[in-house]
Batch of 3 targets.
Target 1
Amino acid sequence: MDEQAHPELPWPGFSPERPFVLPLQAGRMATPFGEACEIEGVRLVRKPEFHVTVLSQELSRTAAVLGTARLRALYESRPWTPRRTGRYALLHDAKPALGGTLERWSLIEHLELPAMDHFRGELARMLGPTLADPVPHVTHFVRGAPNGIGVPNTRALQALQLREVLL
């Protein structure tokens, strides 16, 4: 069995009221960094859960016009088998917060997930280009934001990425 590949992910259900995410098995998400890591002088802590965000809450609301049955059929038209790449990237942004600025950091790992490209590509064809160009990834470590930093597309990734992290 390919140690980098996860088992096929079944349809997780859909609600326009929340992001459309696929849970990943924590036991398959080991990294060489341990429970915390320091990169660029910033200490990040390990997330307790792991998932792939297929659609943000905003994009889920957009896709909801197709109906759950149609979204499920599109999802089930391809096998959703994420494969870890071992390619990591350090992300950073800053948000206004009460009394100043909240610095947020994430260490993500890129995933190979062709089904996500197909799914989002078909949604983009039906509903518009904002649904195209996904970045399949999983967030391993965070600081300042317990769930990480949203990366809806490659343009956002380019704006957020400080650098690739080599092991």
Target 2
Amino acid sequence: MKRLFVFVPAILLVLFLLSSFVLKEKDAGEKTTKGTKSWPVNIVFKSTDGGQTWQDISKGLPENLRKDSIKGNSFFANDKGLFIRVGNGLYHSTPNATAPFWTKEIFPDEHSSIAPGKSWIFANNYWGINLKKTSGTSVWSPIFENFQEPRIRSVFETAGGTIFIGTDRGFFKTANNGKTWKHVHTGSLVGHLAESNGVLVAISMRKIIRSTDNGENWAVVSSEGGEAWDVKQIKGGFAAITSSSASNTRGLRTSYDGGKTWQPIDAGLQGKDFIDSIWRTWNDRLSLQAFMTSIIQVGENFFCTHPAGIFRSSDKGKTWKLLLPSIENKVFNLFVSGNVIYAIPSKGGC
């Protein structure tokens, strides 16, 4: 009986000490959790070694940024790095940036798309607000006070300084910084433009169109029964993202003769379910995910994306190697700045 009375206080003492220790650990954990600043992950990736390894450079973007909130034409890359528009902020990451990877400046219109120019950053939204910022400054001003056309879809500046604006009524161009405008192409569903060796190609009515006189006249060059969704400049020519309405498959084509003829380079990807998702919209019209594929060239290598991830080809598209698997079934958008590759996962679609 005496032994029992001796052990009971001892047990109570041990329990008291243990509970005190647990409470202190809990308090310390709460302080650590509250004191630690979180940051977004899996928003932006960067590779500096040709896609062999990838670094998450999301730190420095808004803490509450959702993984699928960066969409459409709210990002681009040029020789100065990657630019992303998030709400009323324009974020910039240089090719050699270290954590935190981003600097921020105030952006005047949170609904605008952004696009690069030779010495400007263009900002525009669908309803006609158009602004520009001279590189190295933080001052935004109207791009072209004489351009009142709404429904702007794209802005592009050629190497010679001619500026094209794509709208729901086609392409307009100015050769004198917006003092006068000319309607040079009539057609809906116009998309991005690309330039190589003085030749311009673009998308109109889901076909590739081509101009050899600085956009004065355009001719359709793709007539193979498929549809075209995007065009890019590559070394010595162009690359295009196409699709077949008959088989619902997506394709990649290149041209090295100034956009006259186009050759497929996706044979090595056809066995990897290189297929677009098709669904019906609210008004029962078929829609096809337009920006589910991205293609760039770095050195002699092609990089492309589809639902499986990022692939690289070192033999002009004959074979492809998976470099970075997709994240949460999202498809990457690819951008290049020098030899640095940026990848942004998104849901794609138009």
Target 3
Amino acid sequence: MPLRRLTKMSKLELENEQKELKSIIAALKKLLASEDAIKAQVATELDEVAKNFATPRRTRLA
């Protein structure tokens, strides 16, 4: 495979990565612009953590 073909492939990969990063940056800027969006994101993440690390009760409630 010629070197120019390899560099073109890596260039395309870098351009795709750049597009992905730009979309992530835009989403994060949008999140930071709204306090309600931040609170909603924190609540969502806390729910996920509680779901993943929750343990069932060991004692019965009367």
